[in-house]
Specification:
Chain A: InterPro entries: ABC_transp_permease. Chain A: It is a multi-pass membrane protein. Chain A: Keywords: Cell membrane, Membrane, Transmembrane, Transmembrane helix. Chain A: This is ABC transporter permease. The complex is a heterodimer of chains A (about 325) and B (about 350). Chain A has twelve helices and two strands. The relative contact order of chain A is 0.21. Chain A has a two-stranded antiparallel sheet with strand order 1-2. Chain A is an all-alpha fold and about 325 residues long. In chain B, helix 2 crosses helix 13. The chains are: A mainly alpha (about 325), B mainly alpha (about 350). The interface between A and B is large, with 45 and 41 residues.
Chain lengths: ~325, ~350
């Protein structure tokens, strides 16, 4: 296999694995920028994956090829609603954000598996018939070399992921709403003094992360695994959090980091058929995203600094 | 309203609320909550076998709870208990099969190896926190996943590509034919004594030693502690290492008492995350942790009886546990409600007295 062949093989697969990570990581950027740590992204992805598969199995006959896309929307709405639990606990009731995030993860997996057993009377669902389909982008796919790497057999979800990242950058850094999100995450008291509704903005941010996490889970389930079981989402939510940190809490940074982690994930799966990569022990590829994140936090790979008020509930009138 | 009263009332109210919501979930999904909870009760206390298995389930929960609570008391949040626990599990299993030592001593060495492995795994986030001010929450989460994959790779290497490590020698076992025979051959083992000892040790370290005082002081106020002449970064690292050692001991219990080996894992054991619930419910007090572990370990083991006895998926137990965490963590609102009730009572009393 020549080097180009390898690239043509690995890049589409890396982008496929990266897209749920990108979208979920962007969700993480929104909450953390508003001052809420969302450890519960993993659980939100579980809920998104579960609901999209149930929807897909139930409506594939009526909706045909549109099923996964409608499933994505359903997962978005359900993810948003599910994240409200975190918002109520962590923002309104001042619960410890990390503790509520952990509880959200437990709750999500338990609810999803409980419901799976209830609906299908077994621990996992059947495989869906309508997956996300691939297509060639006209004109661009004819470009020599690059066309085959980036524009042939593209998943619509990959384009969606990149669009979401750019949109998130625009919203966070070019709109008044984005400025408010960032201000309540850096210095909620100052923002409050200026008339920004801290609680409301934090609710919005958590809901956005819930919606994006739901989409992330739905993409993972409907493009990669094809069914739902207890181990369908196994750490992707945390890799997304890692990507957010490695991307320094910036949407485009998160995009880049998630692409890189997607590459590591896909290498660990398809790497056995690629020369050189084959000789790298599997475990190295598995742990790479986590090790890099720790190194980034420690400042060895560019210093990553969290938004200042991240993790602290805002209590009006308290210094 | 005293804070001690709240510290007791909030967990109790949360448990009741959790069970009520669990009942509502069961009722709304077409199950009979009474049957469900009876099956749960039966699964915890039904016969001596179930009691033996319940106690066995409680043992690692005590250690996981102590690990989280110890870190909490010293101002840190150790979500990495899960990873430290499986590192300890691996270390104990390895020492158990690879070494040849006299009975008794072998178990002690394996238990200590697990404590060291857990402690080392927690040393990294401790060091990063102390020297580079890196927040321990994210690092410990990442360390969990690293542990999962590293342990799986190590199991493969130790078993020549197999699914589990060779069984430990009998000399390293802490399982007991006596305990097993009085509980209809459950897997109950001597670990419960080690667990009780660990509770007492944590209480002793925190309340009776100078080290414990310093650890708490640093957790409470870093700057004041430094001003008072304490070595802040040494104390932070030590707190994490001790916490990780408790977690590692929990893994040793699984290796030497219950399973006798360690198998490849596709997902976490969940014990470490449940440890957060245990510590929270026990208000981070050693004896509170013991009670929390008894409750959650009991629920977890009793839950396994629910699918066969009442046809209810045992995930309902995890749902209840997660809800209890939410309610305890949102204790602020319960506290508010409690103080309101107390105020109303007091107001009524004064009105009556005036009459």
């Amino acid at each position: 296999m020549s080097f180009l062949d390898v690239l043509e093989f690995i890049i589409p697969s890396a982008i496929l694995y990266a897209s749920p990570l990108i979208i979920t990581a962007i969700g993480g950027v929104f909450t953390e920028r508003s001052g809420v740590v969302n450890i519960g992204l993993e659980g939100i992805m579980v809920i998104g994956a579960f609901i999209s598969i149930v929807f897909n199995l139930s409506f594939a006959d009526q909706l045909g090829t549109w099923t996964p896309w409608v499933g994505l929307l359903v997962a978005m709405v359900v993810g948003l609603l599910f994240s409200l639990i975190l918002a109520v606990a962590a923002v309104s009731l001042r619960a410890d954000q990390t503790v509520s995030g952990v509880a959200l993860n437990m709750l999500a997996l338990a609810v999803a598996v409980f419901s799976t057993k209830l609906i299908y009377e077994k621990g996992q669902t059947d495989s869906i018939s309508q997956r996300f389909s691939r297509f060639d982008i006209p004109v661009l796919s004819d470009i020599p070399v690059l066309g085959k790497m980036f524009f042939t057999d593209v998943y619509g979800t990959s384009i969606l992921a990149i669009v979401v990242a750019i949109l998130a950058w625009f919203v966070l850094f070019k709109t008044p709403f984005g400025l408010r999100i960032r201000s309540v995450g850096e210095h909620p008291m100052a923002a409050d003094t200026m008339g920004v509704k801290v609680t409301r903005i934090r609710y919005y941010a958590v809901m956005i992360s819930g919606a994006l996490g739901g989409i992330g889970g739905a993409i993972y389930a409907q493009a990669i695994t094809g069914n739902f079981a207890a181990n369908t989402i196994s750490g992707q939510g945390f890799i997304a959090i890692a990507a957010m940190i490695f991307g320094k809490w910036h949407p485009l940074g998160a995009l880049g980091a998630a692409l890189f982690f997607g590459l590591a994930q896909s290498l660990s799966i398809v790497g056995t058929s690629i020369p050189y990569v084959r000789d790298v022990p599997e475990v190295v590829l598995f742990i790479l995203p986590y090790v890099l994140t720790i190194l980034a936090l420690a400042g060895f790979v560019g210093k990553a600094t969290a938004p200042k008020a991240s993790g602290k509930p805002y209590i009006k009138g308290k210094r | 309203m005293s804070s001690r009263f709240n510290a007791i009332m909030i967990p109790i109210i949360s448990i009741i609320l959790g069970l009520i919501v669990g009942a509502i979930v069961m009722a709304s999904t077409g199950f009979n909550p009474v049957d469900g909870y009876l099956a749960l009760w039966e699964g915890i206390f039904g016969d001596t076998y179930n009691i033996g298995e319940t106690v066995r389930t409680i043992i690692p929960y005590v250690f996981a709870g102590l690990a989280v609570a110890f870190a909490f008391r010293t101002g840190m949040f150790n979500i990495g208990v899960e990873g430290q626990l499986i590192m300890g599990w691996l270390a104990a299993a390895y020492v158990g099969y690879a070494f040849n030592l006299p009975t008794g001593l072998h178990a002690v060495v394996a238990i200590l190896a697990a404590a060291v492995a857990g402690g080392l795994w927690a040393f990294i986030p401790g060091l990063l926190k102390a020297k580079l001010q890196v927040h321990e929450v994210i690092v410990t989460i990442m360390m969990n996943y690293i542990a999962l994959h590293v342990v799986n790779a190590a199991i493969s290497a130790m078993s020549n590509g197999g699914e589990k490590t060779p069984d430990i020698h009998d000399s390293a076992r802490i399982s007991s034919e006596f305990l097993s025979s009085i509980t209809q051959y459950s897997r109950l083992h001597w670990g419960f004594i080690v667990a009780i000892l660990a509770v007492i040790i944590m209480w002793f370290i925190l309340e009776k030693t100078k080290t414990g005082y310093e650890l708490k002081a640093v957790g409470f106020n870093k700057n004041a502690s430094e001003y008072a002449g304490m070595n802040v970064s040494r104390n932070i690292i030590m707190a994490m290492v001790i916490s990780g050692a408790f977690a590692g001991l929990g893994g040793a219990m699984e290796a030497l008492g219950t399973f006798g080996n360690i198998s490849r894992m596709t997902a976490f054991t969940g014990i470490g995350f449940d440890g957060i619930a245990v510590a929270l419910l026990g208000a981070n007090q050693p004896f509170g942790v013991l009670l929390g572990a008894i409750l959650f370990g009991g629920l977890k083991n009793g839950g396994t009886n629910m699918p066969s006895a009442a046809g209810i998926p045992d995930e309902i137990v995890t749902i209840v546990i997660a809800l209890i965490i939410f309610f305890v963590a949102s204790g602020y609102i319960i506290q508010l409600a409690l103080s309101k009730i107390a105020k109303n009572k007091a107001a009524k009393k004064t009105v009556k007295e005036e009459k």
